[in-house]
Specification:
Elements (H helix, E strand, L loop, with lengths): L1 H22 L15 H15 L9 E6 L2 E8 L2 H12 L6 E8 L6
Parallel strand pairs: 2-3
Antiparallel strand pairs: 1-2
Length: 112
């Protein structure tokens, strides 16, 4: 009985030790990346929104603009398919824009 208890304890310690070793990582710590917009990002998003708003017939009220390091993401909705492509073209023409991700969708109206 005593021998069984010793073997059981040894098995328990060896298993718990392997979990502790598994939990440790040899990877170097990862530097935190900021998800906050810088003043330059905010200025670029504002410039894109202003350019969209100046376009005749383009309703910018449902469009959201996010900029990070020159990369611009357009999201929200517009009233026609032509405006989806138009928004991308206008955005590309703004100084400082390096890339455009267009996630705009058609606004279908209604109450849900």
């Amino acid at each position: 009985m005593r021998k069984f208890l010793i073997h059981a304890l040894l098995a328990l310690f060896s298993v718990s030790g392997s979990f502790a070793a598994y939990a440790q990582s040899t990877d170097a710590p990862v530097a935190k990346t900021s998800t906050k917009a810088t003043p330059a990002d905010r200025a670029l998003a504002k410039a894109v929104r202003r350019a969209l708003a100046k376009t005749p017939g383009f309703d910018v009220s449902g469009v959201f603009v996010r900029a990070r390091g020159g990369a611009v993401v357009l999201s929200g909705s517009v009233k026609s398919g032509e405006q989806i492509e138009q928004a991308a073209q206008i955005t590309k023409s703004v100084d400082g824009v390096t890339s455009v991700t267009n996630k705009l969708a058609l606004f279908h109206g209604g109450n849900g």
